[in-house]
Write a structure and sequence with these properties.
The protein is α+β, with helices and mostly antiparallel strands. It has one domain. Helix content is 31%, strand content 13%. It has eleven helices and eight strands. The protein has a six-stranded mixed β-sheet. A two-stranded antiparallel ribbon has the order 3-8. Strand 4 and strand 5 form a beta hairpin. Helix 8 packs across helix 10. The longest helix has 17 residues. 43% of the residues are buried. The N terminus is likely disordered. It binds zinc ion. Zinc ion (ZN) binds next to helix 6 and helix 8. Keywords: Signal. This is Peptidase M12A domain-containing protein.
């Protein structure tokens, strides 16, 4: 079981506010109603290989490269997995075992993404580079960092769980969480608005799949996956025609809204490149005392992890 983590690319001030809303009250009455909505699909991974037009996995990957950083320094968001509770509580990712990469694509060459890969993650950096590259650039540009770790907990950040090889829908789901914030007004998630919830609860008679019932944020992220398919692969209304009781129009309120919101982001135009600049560098800290001892932590502070809780690391 592996999970990916994609960090928003926001200045700290705006990062804290929207992320604070991610911890929704599970007793929220609207979520209780959401949970009762019928699911149209059994899962959205069908969009990865959908015939006859091919699926999201067939999206083009821009050329690019990845380059490993020297061992010793690590992004703050990657060091925290050294001591967090994990899937089976026996696997940890010591900071010393994290590979850090700059990952760049030719459609946004000046703004590389930082990727962390724990040495015991099954996914290779090559695969991460390839799969993440399928996300259209105007969506990909909102992600500044990705990590692959043997962990399913994401500690308030956006995350996904499960096998993630050649699963473009999985990356798009993650991107959907950041677009939920980006496309909202004044730092408020689209899915936290009454407008969004009314569209689902009062207009629609189904939701994309069972996971779309988990929370309003998951609901928006799953709609984003289908909207991306619509914009990049095949018209969704043609693919699943029919009325609200037979076709995908049972989710028309939320899905059309997502399609409209994401048109400029997902629709491919020749020569398209990123159109925003990162707001600041990823913050690095020292991997640990061993790296400090070897003189590889110049200019960065120590992390604040509790080394007594890190297993399998040099003493
Ligand atoms: Zn999610």
């Amino acid at each position: 079981m592996f999970s990916f983590f994609l960090a928003f690319n926001f200045p700290l001030a705006t990062l804290l506010s929207p992320l604070g809303t991610l911890a929704q009250d599970p007793r929220d009455a609207t979520v209780l109603r959401l949970e009762k909505m019928p699911a149209f699909f059994s899962g959205l991974n069908i969009f990865n290989t959908e015939e006859p037009c091919g699926g999201l996995n067939g999206l083009c990957v821009p050329r690019g490269y990845y380059q490993r950083h020297q061992w010793g320094k690590i992004p703050v968001f990657c060091v925290e997995n050294a001591t967090k509770p994990l899937v089976n509580e026996t696997t940890y990712c010591s900071p010393y075992d994290v590979e850090v990469y700059n990952v760049s694509y030719d459609d946004c060459p000046d703004h590389p993404v930082t990727m962390c890969r724990c040495q015991n993650a099954s996914v290779s950096i090559s695969q991460m580079h390839h799969d993440f590259g399928k996300v259209p650039v105007r969506a990909r540009q909102w992600i500044r960092a990705v990590k692959a770790i043997p962990d399913q907990s994401c500690n308030g950040h956006i995350c996904i769980n499960g096998p993630c090889l050649s699963s473009t829908s999985v990356y798009l789901h993650e991107v959907g969480h950041s677009l939920d914030v980006v496309l909202g007004s004044q730092g408020r998630c689209v899915s936290d608005t009454d407008e969004w919830r009314d569209a689902v609860l009062n207009n629609d008679t189904c939701v994309p799949d069972g996971y779309s019932e988990a929370s309003w944020h998951e609901n928006f992220a799953q709609n984003t996956v289908i909207a991306a398919y619509h914009h990049t692969v095949r018209n969704i209304w043609d693919a699943y025609p029919g009325n609200a009781s037979t076709g995908i129009s049972c989710m028309k309120g939320a899905l059309q809204k997502t399609i409209d919101l994401t048109r400029e982001i997902f629709v491919y135009k020749k020569g398209m490149s990123c159109d925003r600049t990162w707001t600041g560098p990823v913050t690095f800290v020292c991997m640990g005392p061993e790296a400090r001892k070897q003189g590889l932590c110049e200019g960065v502070e120590d992390s604040n992890i509790d080394w007594a809780k890190v297993t399998g690391t040099p003493v």
